[in-house]
Amino acid sequence: SQTDDERALSDSSTEASAVPSHPLWPDIERITLEQLTFAQQGVGEGWEIFEQDGEMKLYKREKEVNGLVQDTLKAVHVVKGVTGFEMANCFFQPEYRFGWETTLEEMKIIEKVSDDAILFHQIHKRVWPASQRDAVFWSHIRQIPDSENPDGEPIWVVCNKSLAKDHPAAPDKKGKYTRAFLTAVIVCQTIITKHPNDEDELSRAEVTCKISYCSHVDPGGWVPAAATRAVYKREYPKFLRKFTSYVIDECQDKPVRT
Ligand code: H15
């Protein structure tokens, strides 16, 4: 039940694909790798845990610039029964998005940069006390060999990053929406608990996915610091719960895809 987009993606990640000549490509490449490194770092000094529920842990690092919140979030989670590819693919492919993204009102694909990179315009639902937000961002998925275990399961990464400049296909409708600026990265890796001598097909009981999600939000406009923090304190755990349960449901009766 693979879609054409998913087939193109798995083909492109097994072949040495040509480097897209798109003007955004150098940024996409550099920022994705930077964000991957950031997501793989531990949560030492400066990080404060603000929510924990079983394996799900959320940390924040507070920062204010001229009274505006510029906090960074880091979340880690361990999800049974799904793979890194399945998690990352559901985060990246637009057809799944309304299934898990509860804050979304509209999603438009501005441009397909390549099979593994898409430029989006999204309009988000209004969250009290702020006005409605919109965002223009690229999203890129790729797999990367695990440098610590090159023969093991690869690492799947999806990086989303707002465009710094206006885009002609989605001009900033000041007054109607406030443009928000986000950087988000999800890093997923499958842990296989199957016995190496067991020749049966890999079952869902034998896979677990390790996730790390980092995000940096500049809500745009003026929002009191306490309000921004109250919103994300509620919304990030909600997103992680909803997203992981959505992927579990979505994959349940399908063959395991690594
Ligand atoms: O990552 C998430 N969603 C994806 C897919 O929709 C998009 C996101 C992105 C949006 C815009 C630009 C770039 C990237 O990656 C899940 C996001 C969960 C959001 C949690 C809520 C943050 C709330 C921040 C405070 C806002 C304060 C007042 C409006």
Compose a concise summary of this entry.
Helix content is 26%, strand content 35%. The chain contains five helices and twelve strands.
Report on this structure.
The chain is an alpha+beta fold and 258 residues long. The protein has a single domain, classed as START domain (Alpha-D-Glucose-1,6-Bisphosphate, Chain A, domain 4, 2-Layer Sandwich), CATH 3.30.530.20. It has helices at 4-14, 25-40, 84-92, 97-100, 225-251, and strands spanning 48-53, 56-61, 64-65, 68-69, 72-80, 104-114, 117-124, 133-144, 155-162, 178-179, 181-192, 207-218. The longest helix has 27 residues, at 225-251. 29% of the residues are buried. The site of ligand H15 has 22 residues, from strand 8, strand 9, strand 11 and helix 5.
Keywords, please?
35% strand; 26% helix; single chain; binds ligand H15; two-stranded antiparallel sheet; 258 residues; Alpha-D-Glucose-1,6-Bisphosphate, Chain A, domain 4; ten-stranded mixed β-sheet; alpha+beta
List the SSEs and their pairings.
Elements: H1 4-14, H2 25-40, E1 48-53, E2 56-61, E3 64-65, E4 68-69, E5 72-80, H3 84-92, H4 97-100, E6 104-114, E7 117-124, E8 133-144, E9 155-162, E10 178-179, E11 181-192, E12 207-218, H5 225-251
Parallel strand pairs: 8-10
Antiparallel strand pairs: 1-2, 2-5, 3-4, 5-12, 6-7, 7-8, 8-9, 9-11, 11-12
Helix pairs in contact: 3-5
This protein binds ligand H15.
Q: If you compute it from the alpha carbons, what radius of gyration comes out, rounded to the nearest whole angstrom?
A: 18 Å
Q: What are the distinct ligands in this entry?
A: ligand H15
**How many structural domains in the coordinates?**
1
Q: Structural class given helices, strands, pairing?
A: alpha+beta
The total beta strand count reads 12
Largest sheet: 10 strands, mixed
Helix content: 25-40%
Could you report the average pLDDT, rounded to the nearest whole number?
Answer: 92
Number of contiguous helices: 5
The CATH architecture can be given as 2-Layer Sandwich
Highest-level CATH class: Alpha Beta
Shape: globular
Order of helices and strands: HHEEEEEHHEEEEEEEH
Corresponding CATH superfamily: START domain
Distance between the termini: 15 Å
Query: What name does CATH use for the topology?
Result: Alpha-D-Glucose-1,6-Bisphosphate, Chain A, domain 4
Strand content: 25-35%
